[in-house]
Amino acid sequence: MRFDFSGIPALDGKVAIVTGASSGIGLVTARELAKKHCHVILACRSKTKTEPVIKTIQEAAPEANVEFMELDLMSLKSVQAFTDAFKARGLPLHLLINNAGIAMVPFALTKDGIESQFGTNHIAHMALTLRLLPILETSAPSRIVNVSSMSHAWASADGFDWDKINNPETYSTWRAYGLSKLANVLFTRELSRRLHARGIQNVYVNALHPGSVYTGIAEGYNFIVRFFAKLVLSSADNGAKTQLYVATHQDIVTNNWHGQYFVPIAELSETHALGQDTDLASRLWDLSLEFINKTIQD
C-alpha cells in the first residue's frame, strides 16, 4: 500500500520505547514518532552514541520530547534494570518497538552465556516485553512491534535446542540469524494468542520484515561494493516505514490485526510455514521463559 510519514497520526500524550534507536531504521522511527509529539525513549547501550542522535532529532523537531535510557540487550540484568527504572517513573507505555538487533556476527556469547544473536534478538526482547506488558495493558490501546526479517525462513524446526544454539562447532552466522528472526515471529504469534486467551483485545502485537536496508553497514567496504549496495538496498527512511505503519496506523485496529506479519511497504503478508507452527511457538515460549526466569529473579 501507499504509506509515508504523513500517514502517521498525531501522537500527543503517547509514550514509546524504541530499542536500537541510535542508528538506522530505529533512529528514523524515533525521529518520526517525535515529530508527531510522541514522548520517545531511546533504549540504547551507549549514551555517548545516542546523545548526538537526540540532538539531530531535536533539530528536525524542536519540540521533540526524546530521551536516552540505557539498555544493553546482551545482558538480562540490564533489561531488568531498564524495566525497573521505567516502572519507577510511573509513565504509561503505548508503543514498544523492538527494533534493535545484530546480524551475521561471529560466534559469541551474551553476558548470560547464550549465543549472541539469539540472546540479543529474541531472549532479551522477550524479557523486555514481558516485564513491560502490565504497563502496556493498563495503557491500552497499545502496540508491540517486533522487527523480524524474511530471513526467518533460513531456520530449521529443530533449532530451538540449547545444545545446538550454543555450539560453536556447528555455528553458522546465517542460520543463527535466521533462527533468531524465526523466534521473533513465533514470539509474536504466541504472545498474541496468550493475550487473547486472557480476553485482552486492545494490545496489538505484530511482526514485520523491514526490507533490505542500507544503514552504513557497507561503509567499510570498497567504493564498488558501496555503490552497488546503495543501488540495491533501501534507505533507512524507507526501511522504517513498515514498522511505523504497524506501530501507528488505524488500519491495525480497524482490521483487528493481531499476531500478523508485514512486509515493505506496509503490506500484510504470510510468514514461512515454520512461522505458523503453533506447537513450535509454544515450545519456544517455554524454553525462553525458563531461561529468563532462571536469570532474572525479582
UniProtKB/TrEMBL annotation:
Gene3D superfamilies: NAD(P)-binding Rossmann-like Domain (3.40.50.720). This is Uncharacterized protein. Belongs to the short-chain dehydrogenases/reductases (SDR) family. Keywords: Oxidoreductase. Pfam families: adh_short. It comes from Aphanomyces euteiches. InterPro entries: NAD(P)-bd_dom_sf, SDR_fam. GO terms for molecular function: oxidoreductase activity.
